[in-house]
Specification:
There is one protein chain. The protein is an alpha/beta fold. It has helices spanning about 10-20, 70-85, 105-110, 120-140, 155-165, 180-185, 185-195, 215-230, 250-265, 270-275, 280-290, 300-310, 315-330, 335-345, 350-365, 370-385, and strands at about 25, 30, 35-40, 45-50, 65-70, 95-100, 145-150, 170-175, 205-210, 235-245. It has an 8-stranded mixed β-sheet with strand order 3-4-6-5-7-8-9-10, sandwiched between helices. α1 packs across α2, α5 packs parallel to α7 (about 185-195) and α12 packs parallel to α14.
């Protein structure tokens, strides 16, 4: 499915709501869960909102993690957006850890500001992320070592600050209308002095502003952009975008969408590339593994679709090779065996077809799979042959 950028917010929200409806269970719409972590660094309990990918409970896969600040405002639609993009193979399935605020000015301002009580605790919050939150999430969930930090306004400025303060924590950042004028433009001299120290950062950074922002914020963001151009190492990939006709608050949804697509701009293969066959597909995902730093394999649905394309072309050898690879990657999926069985059947290899259909049927029977009757019919039909 291809989307033009100039789509109305209403349309996208309808699409996302439709995606979330797929998670209805017992007349409830479930987006995620709330958990609590006790912080000895912040001296308080912190609530967290957790979204797990659709395949989390049906596979043993591990997933990258998106850490979302200001989660009380942005968690619900971000979960739908990530689900939508991953379903359309624009990004990987991703765990979302939403962090609601308790004391925003304390946690995200790096320096004390005389008229903002409690400010200046950003380093403590970074310590909370590094020593408590991230280790806890890695222990509780199946995670990959690729993390994105997303923040809006003051939290967007914090994204920039944390990138230089503790660069090992996150691999990518989406800073939406970052409040770089905070603490008398503290971030500008901090970045000017700190960024040249890094010969390599190997990160992706996407940040935005609305064309209807206040003038001093837009001016300061332009100055920040100049600093990046001058001092950023070659492997710091960054993009700055002005959102036309948007203000400080209205741009968030579209900026999130664009930011995720920027970070994963090379994630999917074109239809033409997919039709070149298994070797090209495997090479692509090997390249993604090298870029993102963890093992990435072709999604089951992609291999399944490409296998059926070659089956439709009656290129049985390529179809079998692709669908057999799907079986090796996803041995707990009944569907991969059924698809391979169909390919063997149409290529005239009835015994192998029946063996794979039987595997699909028996696996589906154990979990009462929604396609159980189809798998059963396929098995019984080839058994008679």
């Amino acid at each position: 499915m291809k989307l033009r950028y100039i789509q109305t917010l209403t349309f996208l929200l309808i699409v996302l709501f439709g995606n979330l409806l797929s998670q209805i269970t017992d007349n409830r719409i479930t987006i995620g869960e709330k958990i609590t972590i006790t912080s000895n660094i912040l001296f308080e309990e912190r609530n967290l909102f957790v979204y797990l990918p659709e395949s989390y409970n049906t596979t043993q896969n591990s997933y990258p993690v998106l850490y979302l600040l200001d989660a009380e405002d942005h968690f619900k639609y971000t979960a739908g957006l990530v689900q939508f993009l991953s379903r359309n193979n624009k990004m990987p399935e991703t765990i979302i850890i939403g962090i609601p605020n308790t004391y925003r000015n304390r946690d995200f301002l790096p320096e004390k500001v005389f008229n903002i009580p409690g400010s200046g605790g950003a380093d403590n919050f970074i310590g909370f992320l590094k020593e408590e939150l991230i280790p806890s999430i890695d222990k509780k969930y199946r995670t990959q070592p690729h993390r994105i930090l997303v923040g809006h306004s003051l939290c967007g400025m914090f994204c920039f600050y944390s990138m230089l303060k503790q660069p090992e924590l996150f691999n990518a950042f989406i800073a939406i209308s970052p409040w770089v004028i905070a603490a008398d433009n503290f971030l500008l001299p901090y970045t000017t002095s700190g960024l040249p120290k890094y010969k390599s950062l190997n990160k992706s950074v996407y940040f935005t502003a609305g064309s209807k922002e206040q003038e001093n914020l837009l001016t300061t963001l332009e100055e920040y952009k100049i600093i990046l151009r001058k001092f950023a190492p070659d492997d710091l990939i960054w993009e700055y975008k002005i959102m036309e006709d948007e203000d400080h608050g209205s741009q968030v949804f579209m900026a999130m969408y664009d930011g995720l697509k920027m970070i994963y701009k090379d994630w999917n293969l074109s239809d033409a590339e997919l039709k070149k066959g298994l070797d090209i597909i495997l090479k692509h995902y090997s390249n993604l593994t090298s870029k993102y730093g963890y093992s990435i394999v072709p999604p089951e649905n992609i291999l399944n679709a490409v296998g059926y394309y070659f089956l439709g072309q009656q290129n049985f050898d390529e179809a079998i090779a692709i669908l057999a690879k799907n079986v090796s990657l996803y041995p707990q999926s009944a569907n991969v065996y059924d698809s391979l069985g169909e390919t063997y059947e149409k290529s005239g290899q009835q015994l192998l077809a029946n063996q794979n259909y039987e595997k699909a049927y028996l696996m589906a029977k154990e979990i009462n799979h929604p396609n159980l009757q189809i798998y059963k019919q396929n098995f019984e039909r080839t058994q008679k042959k």
